[in-house]
Amino acid sequence: MRAFCAILLVALAIVVHANEQTVGVKGTLWCGKEPIPHSDVQLLVHDTFSDNVLMTVSTNGSGYFQLTGSRNKAYSMRTYVKFFFFCNPNNAKPDPNAKCTRVVRADLPDNIAIDGKNPKWYDMPNVVMKPDGKMPNEDQDCKN
Which class in CATH covers the domain with range 19-142? Predict the structure, then answer.
């Protein structure tokens, strides 16, 4: 019983000590030399048991994206971005008949999450995907 109470007190202390942390990231998504318009970009935070989506946006017509997110954390947030896109040698535009979307994960630096509600913007100016060939940390998201 004492061990349980000690664990409960430690957990409560961590929760009480948690601060709101905010992260902001922006950039432009490219397929080689062409911007990738209308592709989904997600900002995620790694948690102990699962990862949580903080925000999802679509790139604009020029491939630009901007994401922010906040969480109450007792320790520094570990965040990353996922890009869902089409990129082949002939076309960077979504193909409505395609069964799979390419997905690339990009980890963000630990020091970009700051205490408070106003983000310190992390600039990913040119996120360039290879039109032919697999990127590091690439996977596929396929429709059934």
Answer: mainly beta
